[in-house]
Amino acid sequence: MKRFPSTLLLAACLTSTVSVPTHAATPKQPAPKAALKVDFQKFTLANGLQVVFHIDRSDPVVAVNLTAHVGSAREKAGRTGFAHLFEHLLFLESENLGKGGLDKMSARIGGSGANGSTSQDRTNYLQTVPKDALEKMIWAEADKLGWFINTVTDPVLAKEKQVVKNEKRQGVDNAPYGHTYYVINKALYPADHPYNWQVIGSLDDLQNAQLDDVKEFFRLWYVPNNVTLVLAGDFDPVQARKWVEQYFSEIKRGDPINAMAKRPGVVKQTVKLVHEDNFAKLPELNMAWPTVEDLHADAYALEVLAEYLSQTKRAPFYKVLVEDSKLAPNVQIGNNTSELAGQFMLRIRAFEGKPLDEVAAAVDQAFAKFEQEGIPEKDLNRIKAGLETRFYNSVSSVLGKSALLAEYNYLTGNPGYVAEGVKKTLAVSAADVRRVYATYIKGKPYVATSFVPKGKLALALSGSAKAEVVEEKVVQGAETAVDASVNAAYTKTPSAFDRSKEPAYGATPAVKVPAVWDTTLSNGMRVVGIENREVPLVQFDIAIDGGLLLDRIDKVGVANLMARMMTQGTAQKTPQELEEAILQLGATINVAARSEDIRVSVTTLARNYDATLALVQEILLQPRWDEKEFALIKQSVLSQIRQQEADPNALASSNFNKLIHAKDDLRSRNILGTSDTVNAITIDDLKRYYRANLSPSNARMHVVGAMPKAAVARSLAGLNREWKAKPVTLPAVSTAVGQAPGKVYFVDVPDAKQSVLQVGYRALAVTDPDYYPATVMNYILGGGGFASRLTQQLREGQGYTYGINSNFAGSKSAGPFTIASGVRSNVTLESTQLVKQILQDYGTTYSAADLDTTKNFLVKSNARAFETSAAKLAMLDNISKYGWRADYVKEREQIVKAMTLPQIQALSQKYLDPSKMVWLVVGDGKTQLPRMKALGFDEPVLIAK
Q1: d(Cα 515, Cα 936) in Å, to the nearest integer?
Q2: Continuous H helices in 123-197
Q3: Does 3 score more than 90 pLDDT?
Q4: Rg (CA), the chain
Q5: pLDDT grade, residue 786 (50/70/90)?
Q6: 539 — phi, psi (to 5°)?
Q7: Starting from the edge strand earliest in sequence, which strands make up the sheet with 537-545, in order?
């Protein structure tokens, strides 16, 4: 749970469900003997604050991570959701940061954006900032911990309750299968167990929360002796320690905090529950068994068991449920561990109309297959081989390292415990895997949930009772308007020095653009790369221009199916053999179709680069075209299309693309195709697409990692020789023509708790001279996160939404300007009216202070522009696709510095005209459609689903 969806975390590497690459060969050399670890320094202040430093000089940035050892498990029944609520509140204001708090400061200093997340066991606050802002961040984090609670008033609390409720509506109430964990945990844990309720809490508990209750919770748990502060990056540890002591030392220690007892879930007999899901088109079966807590000796073998059972083509569940019974496109199994307890989870979203009793019978068959065969040593070694790659991926950014150190520190007191976790995983034996299966799964009672489409109760497991799911009734005008902008009156918390003065910046860091090497093979493929030895990995991709744009209009979906088929075996290897070859290298190879290219994406250990590249060459040049795999993938895509028909966000995306593009423009189509087009596609269509469109003449390769140019060039000799060029005609660049008229368009999703909004039009190509200046202009509108007006007014001011943003996107062809949000259903009209007003007023109200904030952020944030491999790959993609110089970021910096108020005003007048935009609403038509005429764009147009 966090402010914006996150891709972190992390102890995933070892202590939670392992997600294995899609596909893998024996390494040419064994894994190194060196321990997989993260170096650190640790000290503790007199008030109990534990501080961990990790030095990484690779980029001029520092990750700052403050983790409080308090999550939903520290709450009480009837007072749930408080920990997650504080994750929100702590960003808003503190006594010396003032209104806007860390959010406002983050924009000024060029930070990655103040962010946080809450689990059952901890709450963290983290971001990466340029190194010259480190003292500011330490000052700000101390202010949040010691000088915050007085700023929380009844209006602030009332507004933030609405924001959190919107988050719940977005992620749970308005999402397919969103109530699954609520139902499972209620049955898996007794009513007095702290994992019985969800992290986000109940809407009733949040609404009933009183200011005194909330403040008491803060004073109990947000104290130095319950907090870990981690700094990871390029800084002087001696100076940083002085700052930490200066700003944190006078915060008073809290009462002693006792560790909570480990307490597994309890299921005395199997429980079966069913829920008719308003947003589901496919039946889904979940099964959950109580297991052990995080870091328990058996947790490691349970993780290996979960991975083996479902993650490859050899896996028992894949064999039985996907290949043999053809009941589902895949099976997800994981051992989810938390500090006090764990649960072994199985999830199967079946094909449309499949009875879940059949699925459950197949589950029994798959378990029986495992009982008979066990786990082969070969598969055990393959799972362990992937551990090293996953570890290096998890520590490839300073933010990732900070999270890993903080997680292990609050769990064990030893930030470096990751090394122990590696040893324990490597020590798991086949006998251990069989033992934990027999101990926790075989013949044991479990919780089973059937989530089925409305009116399809017959698909549920036999003997299922109705699940008790609390569904909110959205009533027009039910919420009272609040004004959280009123300044709180309070006596300031004393301090030994004047904390109201924000520290000065340190020395401005030198931003060094990575050195880019560039070459073109004789077959026409351009190769650009960056040598980067921070971790012993190589990441590369091959972009083959075309993608969806080369589909036939009557057979949309061919590019997607062809891309998915590319990793399903080669002429020399069966699908299973190819998968095993990749996994034995600890590598990942994925092929995906996108709107403008087919992209091969690869991650591998540097020592296995040559072997991995050989497999990529085999995949590209010797596809297998396996009929059996084609049938499975086709059925999977049809199932995916079916589910999208009930997903409000998918409906918004597909309909928005149709509205802003001409009917004959392939960008208006879903890359998956439709049920009709996919059913009409044959494997010969895939072969034709492959023969006609995959050529080095329209391919670009990008390489980042521990590999010099000369070694990469040598490795490509075979691909250069064997992959022959042929002419491929790419569609001409398209302009913004054929868009639907600017008015309101509505897609009805009965009983939706939120309305999904997409507002915009087809605007600019990336290559247009106005494109980057327009993105600069958009920063304060909706591109700057919590610095943006859309967020400040719709979320922070009114509590209408959990999140809203705006952006320009494009390529060589014109792309869309989009404003996107999910808003509370009963303020759909009010939200769009406010967006319209913000757009109309933007140019005339944009101030010199707004321009300063924009310049500060966009210039200072360049310090962290190239930190991750993903960022470096994106930079190389821009260079190869658009012909930009390697230092184009510096050119953009000059554009930012030269921007003036008149330029911003002219750009906003030119590109932010509400009357030219389509205003798409996906929500409850019965209550919201009639109201939308008041937005002022004539009668709304109802779009048939």
Answers
A1: 53
A2: 134-146, 154-168, 180-188
A3: no
A4: 27
A5: confident
A6: -120, 130
A7: 517-520, 526-531, 699-705, 537-545, 597-605, 588-593
Distance, CA of 660 to CA of 650 (rounded, Å): 16
Q: Is 513 helix (H, G, I), strand (E, B) or coil?
A: coil
CA distance 214 to 523: 66
Residues 128/864, Cβ–Cβ less than 8 Å: yes
What average pLDDT does the segment 556-576 reach? 97
What are residue 744's DSSP bridge partners? Answer: 919
What is the CB-side half-sphere exposure of residue 687 using CA atoms within 13 A? 9
Q: How many helices (H) and strands (E) does the chain have?
A: 32, 24
Strand partners, 918: 760
Label residue 30 exposed, middle or buried (CB < 10 Å: 0-12, 13-18, 19+). Answer: exposed
Residue pair 804/819 in contact by the 8 Å Cβ criterion:
yes
pLDDT above 70 for 470: yes
Q: Which of 717, 707, 710, 723 is nearest to 872 (CA)?
A: 707
Closest to 312 in 3D by CA, of 678, 698, 575, 560: 575
Nearest to residue 328, comparing CAs of 568, 632, 645, 576? Answer: 632
The DSSP letter of residue 294 is: T
If pLDDT is split at 50, 70 and 90, which confidence band does 64 have? very high
Query: If DSSP codes are grouped into helix, strand and coil, which group holds residue 61?
Result: strand
What's the length of the chain? Answer: 945
Alpha helix ranges (H) inside 662-784: 675-680, 683-693, 709-715, 717-722, 771-778
Pair of tokens at residue 212: 């005194």
Exposure of 123 by Cβ count < 10 A (0-12 exposed, 13-18 middle, 19+ buried)?
buried
pLDDT at 26: 40
pLDDT for the residue numbered 35: 66
Is residue 366 within 8 A of residue 309, CB to CB? The reply is: yes
Q: Residue 816 pLDDT more than 50?
A: yes
Helix spans in 460-608 (H): 558-565, 575-583
Which pairing describes strands 115-118 and 517-520: parallel, antiparallel, or unpaired?
unpaired
Return the SS3 of 937: coil
Rounded to whole angstroms, how far apart are CA atoms 553 and 755? Answer: 31
Given this model, what pLDDT does residue 764 score? 97
φ, ψ for residue 629, nearest 5 deg? -65, -35
Indicate if the alpha-carbon torsion angle 122, 125, 127, 129 is positive or negative: negative
pLDDT of the residue at 485 = 73
Q: How confident is the model at residue 511 (pLDDT cuts 50, 70, 90)?
A: confident
H/E stretch holding 126: strand 123-130
Task: Label residue 34 left, alpha or beta by phi (over 0 means left) and psi (-120 to 50 means alpha).
Answer: beta
Tell me the pLDDT tens digit for each residue of 312-364. Answer: 999 999 999 999 999 999 999 999 999 999 999 999 999 999 999 999 999 99
Reading the block at residue 362, the tokens are 């197949």
pLDDT tens, position by position, 237-273: 999 999 999 999 999 999 999 999 999 999 999 999 9
Euclidean distance between CA atoms 424 and 417, whole angstroms:
11
The SS3 call for residue 143 is helix
Mean pLDDT score of the chain, rounded to an integer?
93
Q: DSSP letter at 779?
A: I
Quote the CA–CA distance of 514 and 875 in Å, as a whole number.
10
Rounded Cα gap, residues 421 and 13, in angstroms:
9
Helix, strand and coil content of the chain, in percent to the nearest 5, comes to 45, 15, 40
What value does the mean pLDDT take over residues 618-641? 97
Q: How far apart are CA 487 and CA 657, in angstroms?
A: 43
Quote the CA–CA distance of 4 and 116 in Å, as a whole number.
Answer: 8
CA distances from 756 to 5, 300, 746, 790, 831 (A): 16, 41, 10, 15, 11
What are 682's two structure tokens?
């044959």
pTM to 2 decimals? 0.92
The helix-helix angle for 82-89 and 211-221 (nearest 10°) equals 90
